[in-house]
Amino acid sequence: MKRVIFFTLSCLVSCLLVSAQKIGLSIHYNMVMQIPKEVYSMSDLSKRQMIINQLSNQHKTYTLFTNGNECAFSTTGIDNNVIKLEGSGSYYTNTTDNKEISIKSIVDKAFVVFSDSLKNEWDLYFDETIEVLGKKCTKAVYKKNRSVVAWFCQEIPSPVGPCGYIGLPGAILRLTTSSEIYEAESILPIKGQVKIELPRGKIMQKPAFEKLQKKKIEELKESGNDNVIVL
Question: Are residues 11 and 52 in contact, defined by beta-carbon separation less than 8 angstroms?
Answer without folding.
Answer: no
